Amino acid sequence: MRLPLLLLAIFLSAFSATYAQPGFGPEIGVGMSSMHFAPPLGFTAADVATMASGKVGVLVDLPLNKHLYFQAGLSVSSKGAVRSFSYYTNDSFNESVNQTLHIYYADLPVNLLFKSGHQGRGRFVGGLGATASYIIGGKNKLHDSFDSSGIKTVTDDNLNIIRCQTIKGFDIGLNLTAGYELPTGLFFRAYYTVGVSDIGPGTEVDKNRMWGISAGYLFGKGRNVNKENDLIDKTPE
Predict the structure, then answer these.
(1) 216 phi, psi to nearest 5 deg
(2) To pair with 112 at 20 to 30 A between CA atoms, which of 3, 63, 88, 170?
(3) What is the pTM of this model?
(4) 98: left (phi > 0), else alpha (psi -120 to 50), else beta?
């Protein structure tokens, strides 16, 4: 949790130190999510498949100089994975579990970006950052097939995600993003966030992974090159 708070503190101090007003606006993204997954002790095999994911939120875009920008936002995202894990001793003693995790997070992403060219003109964007996430809901769909001494038991459940029981409530990930910003403030980018904290309960290991593409729009002073005389070089007559 310290990393995103530190980056947010840098953002706030930079904001207070500059007279340039930030851009702000919405962003929506679609993509895929998965997990690095190691099942609880006792299970000997595991497999993970991706599932559709997405996010929607708002962000602020603060210019620190001509090319360096700090972005912070607040969004709601859908993450998770389709997983299967099992153990096998013999035909009369084995278990297999199929699990679909739909997890909804409140995300606080902070990124340091480099933008080519001049503000108010089309330019490429790339950067790094971190995202702090907290679970706000979700579903844990389970299909469990257990065979003991020839007696087979099959159960199906569709449970609510329970923080610190189904999975730990807090997560932190590292961001990589690259895209293009149009002169109007409309932007498109690809993103990848990899979890660096183990959010699995007990002996289980879980780390989120999410990638996709997004689009957004930046409002506010500074989208027009003619209003940024103190941040960019004036175009020669």
Answers:
(1) -155, 180
(2) 170
(3) 0.82
(4) beta
